Each structure stands twice: as C-alpha cells, then as structure tokens.
Amino acid sequence: MNQSNAQIIWTDPAPVAELLRTPGKRVAVIIHVNPDGDALGSSLALLNIFNKCGHTSSVISPNNYPGFLKWMPGTEQVIIMEESSAEAMDSLLKADIIFAADFNELTRVKKLNEAFCESKAFKVLIDHHPGPNMDVNCMLSDTSASSTAELVYRFIKETGLHSLVDRDIASCLFTGIMTDTGCFSYNSSGRKTWETVAELLDFGIDKDRLYYLTYDNFSEHRMRLLGYGLNERMEVFPEYCTGIIWFARDDLDKYHFEVGDTEGFVNYPLSIKGIRFSALFVEKEDHVRISFRSKGDFAVNKFSRKYFNGGGHANASGGESYLSIADTVRRFKELLPSYKDELSRHED
Ligand code: 5GP
Ligand code: MN
C-alpha cells in the first residue's frame, strides 16, 4: 500500500482498554472465511493476551483454517462455525466484547453475520482493508499497515497491554506480518512494519523457525498439485500481461486436496516476466473461489467487486462465481480485452 494514499480511521481505543481492565469478561474474536496467516495470527495474539488478562476468550472462524497454521499457539481455542455452530453462536451471543479482525465487511464472515449484528457487545474492528463498512463501537482501520497483525500490535501498545506480550504472542503477530507480506516482498515498504518486527524480535521469537513451520510444512500432495497446476492448468496471455491457474474438482480430488493447499499458488504467474495480473480459480462444491493478484496500479479489488462478488486490497483480492469452472474461466478471458490498455501500460 502506498503510504501517501493511506485511508485511516482510528477511533480512540481508551473505552475498550477500560473494559478490558476488569478481568472476567467474555471476549470473542471473529475472523474471515478461509482464514489466512494474518487472520489467525492477529486473532490468536488477541486471544492469548486476553487470556492473560483473566478474560474468557475464543476465536471464531466461519470455516476451517489451513493445516500449515495448526502449530500456532492457541489454535485449540479456535471454534469453527461450520463444525460447531452451536458453540460458535453461544460464544458470540454471550460475548461482552467482540473483536473483528482482518476483514472490512460482514459478508466475509458468512453465517456469523446475523449474530454479530444481533449482539449488544462492545464491538471493535481491527483491519487494513480499504473501505471498512461495519457498524462498530471502535474502528482501528489503516490501509497503510502491512497486515492486521501490525495493527493489533499497535492496539496492544495503545491500550497498555504491552507488558503482557510474550514470545507466543509475538510469534503470532510476526507470522501475520510475514504471511501478509509474502515474506516481506510486498506491502512492507513502510518503516512502521520493520519497527514492529524489530520490537517483536525483542520478545525472543525464532524467526527462522516461524518461517519453516509456516512454509516448509506442506504435504507431498500439495507440492504435486502445484506441479500439475503449473504444467497443465496454467494459461498465460502475454498480450494482456495476465496469467491464470485453474483447478476443477476432479483435479483436486486426484491430489487429495485439503484446506489451504492452493494458498500462494496465485502468485506463481506473477513471477513470469511481463505478467502483472494473475488469477487462481478453484472449483468448490457449489461455486468457484477466485483469488486475484496484481503488480503495480491495476486494482484487482475493483475488478473483483465489479465482476466476481468480491473485494480486498488493490493488489490482492478474492471473489466467487456461481458459473461452472469452465464458464467462469471463459468469462474471465472474455473480460481481458477491455483491460488491454490498462494492463499493458506499465514500466518494469
Ligand atoms: P485470498 O486470495 O488470499 O483469498 O484473498 C486476498 C485478499 O482479498 C485478502 O485480503 C482477503 O481478505 C480479500 N478477499 C478475498 N476474498 C474476498 C471477498 O470475497 N470479498 C472481499 N471483500 N475481500 C476478499
Ligand atoms: Mn490481512
């Protein structure tokens, strides 16, 4: 994110700090569907710190998270709505305080939406996506941040909870920053990101271990699915500076697909010289899940919002389609010619 275009809404967090000062509160932290390292890192850092404050806390996720993030401290306290809906609803409806982390609109939490709106809890949003659109009591939103984890650290400092940060909490936050910046390759040009990392290192985190726990933790099937995708399912359109990868349900079954296995695949076409727009299409049970990435000023969140019911950041967004996988890919290809000028206008 360009620092000069930052959109910042930063409500004074003193009222929530005051609430958190009395132990015994029930705190629920909700995260977006298909949670990633930032959603999990941010929410688990909050959970661990609230536990240390003497509150009863839980993280509620609409669906399961990738296996390669299971090692993160506190995952045993994550309630998965799809699997334990009564427990998830109970936690949410009984909460005194609800934190929403790493998303900007309630469509991102699927069935948790209604309970969130119904709840009379004090609500806090911590997020770095543009255009937050949620009714909350405290909004901590800053698009110039690398990640929600970076903002959670800022929240912790501003609310006087800093002395409770320990190695586990710092590890969760570091993992959020590391994963949302592609290991510091994008969204990490601001000095605040590096200052945050420097401070997290002071808590004794083992950066190398956190890297290998996250990135050297895949199944053999996932690696072979990647190989298959690059060989058989990648299409490159040099005239539009675009590359895509797509998977039909049969492809996924053949490679024993598990949640999170295609995480990161969308970045591969971007590493081809001249490619600045990439998309990954994955066929799910009743829809096609899409990830978009771009380099430079082609705003994939606008593209996704316009054609694929989605949104996100300017260079990283997601969406979905209710056409078949073949028709979805066809529709995407049909859209490219109208973006030819925009996509090919760039300095490399
Ligand atoms: P991913 O491709 O990794 O699933 O998502 C990339 C980014 O776009 C993430 O920041 C994610 O939160 C956001 N995003 C993904 N899907 C959607 C969507 O359907 N709606 C919105 N508003 N944001 C999305
Ligand atoms: Mn994020």
Q: Can you offer a commentary on this structure?
A:
The chain is α/β, with parallel strands linked by helices and 348 residues long. It folds into 2 domains: 3-215, inorganic pyrophosphatase (n-terminal core); 220-345, Diaminopimelate Epimerase, Chain A, domain 1, CATH 3.10.310.30. Helix content is 37%, strand content 19%. The protein contains 13 helices and 13 strands. It has a 7-stranded mixed beta sheet, sandwiched between helices. It has a 6-stranded mixed beta sheet with strand order 8-9-10-11-13-12. The longest helix is centred in the N-terminal third of the chain and has 16 residues, at 37-52. The protein is globular and about 60 Å long. The relative contact order is 0.11. The model has no long low-confidence stretch (mean pLDDT 96). Manganese (II) ion is lined by residues 38, 102, 128, 147-148, 180.
Residue-averaged pLDDT, rounded? 96
Terminus-to-terminus distance: 18 Å
Shape: globular
Number of helices: 13
What is the total number of structural domains? Answer: 2
**CATH superfamily name of the largest domain?**
inorganic pyrophosphatase (n-terminal core)
Major sheet: size, sense and barrel closure? Answer: 7 strands, mixed
Calculate Rg over CA atoms: 20 Å
Q: What is the CATH C-level name of the largest domain?
A: Alpha Beta
CATH architecture descriptor of the largest domain: Alpha-Beta Complex
What are the low-pLDDT stretches, counting only 5+ consecutive residues below 50? none
- In N-to-C order, the SSE pattern is EHEHEEHEHEEHHHHHEEHEEHEEHH
Number of strands: 13
CATH fold naming of the largest domain: inorganic pyrophosphatase (n-terminal core)
